[in-house]
């Protein structure tokens, strides 16, 4: 049964929950919420542990195959095996997007990019200084709010050059687009939409205004 314990030498708490049968260790722990903020109360840690245990119990009902021998898989191996079973059945793994954006980008996305070393340096700078500080601790499947990304982009434009801000937005859009393709998030919240407001109105007006073409008579 789920329980909570205080972490030694700190004022923080961790929740403890049972892993599925056959998984090692038998007991898992959770020390922070989805935003990466440590638990400061026993109640919060215990609630998170109960939710985690219930989630794993639900997943275990979807296991297709013989029971596992005790300690035969780590929890990560178990999740990958279960995800493979679900794909083979044509199902979507609704928990796949729960990994943090920073973990997925560093371990999976960035190493898979076939780009020049100079581009890797640029990507790393944008990620380290501007993207991951804002979104890195978030589970990928929580990055679905377009207005949140618009506000972040607007803040970047106030701090950096327009080119830098736009390049960061484009990189985040590429990352979330790949995450969407991988089934980790439902929408690409960083994908650009048609501009609105005064900027859009000005561009419409400019398009409607007849151009003043230079004619030979002007030079006569």
Concise summary:
This protein has about 220 residues and is mainly alpha-helical. The chain is about 50% helix and about 10% strand.
Topology:
Layout: E1 3-6, E2 13-18, E3 23-24, E4 27-30, H1 42-60, E5 73-74, H2 75-88, H3 101-109, H4 117-135, H5 146-159, H6 162-181, H7 197-208
Parallel strand pairs: 3-5
Antiparallel strand pairs: 1-2, 2-4
Structure in words:
There is one protein chain. The chain has 220 residues and is mainly α. The chain folds into two domains: 3-94, no CATH class; 101-205, Orthogonal Bundle (DNA polymerase, domain 1). The chain has helices at 42-60, 75-88, 101-109, 117-135, 146-159, 162-181, 197-208; strands at 3-6, 13-18, 23-24, 27-30, 73-74. The strands form two sheets. It has a three-stranded antiparallel beta sheet, covered by helices on one side. Strands 3-5 form a two-stranded parallel sheet. A hairpin with a 6-residue loop joins strand 1 and strand 2. Helix 4 crosses helix 6 and helix 5 (146-159) runs antiparallel to helix 6. The longest helix is centred in the C-terminal third of the chain and has 20 residues, at 162-181. The N and C termini lie far apart (94 Å).
């Amino acid at each position: 049964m789920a329980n909570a314990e205080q972490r030694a030498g700190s004022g923080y708490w961790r929740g403890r929950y049972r892993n599925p049968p056959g998984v090692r260790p038998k007991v898992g722990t959770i020390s922070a919420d989805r935003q990466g903020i440590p638990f400061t109360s026993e109640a919060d840690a215990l609630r998170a542990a109960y939710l985690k245990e219930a989630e794993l119990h639900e997943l275990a009902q979807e296991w297709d195959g013989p029971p596992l021998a005790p300690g035969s898989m780590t929890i990560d191996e178990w999740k990958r095996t279960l995800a493979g079973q679900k794909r083979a059945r044509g199902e979507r793994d609704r928990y796949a997007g729960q990994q943090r954006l920073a973990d997925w980008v560093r371990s999976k996305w960035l190493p898979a990019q076939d780009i020049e070393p100079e581009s890797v340096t640029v990507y790393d700078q944008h990620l380290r200084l501007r993207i991951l500080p804002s979104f890195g601790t978030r589970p990928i499947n929580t990055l679905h709010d377009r207005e949140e990304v618009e506000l972040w982009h607007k803040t970047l434009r106030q701090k950096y050059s327009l080119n830098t801000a736009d390049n960061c937005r484009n990189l985040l859009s590429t990352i979330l687009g790949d995450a969407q393709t991988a089934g980790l998030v439902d929408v690409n919240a960083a994908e650009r939409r048609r501009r609105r407001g005064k900027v859009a109105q000005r561009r419409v007006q400019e398009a409607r205004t007849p151009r003043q073409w230079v004619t030979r008579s002007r030079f006569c």
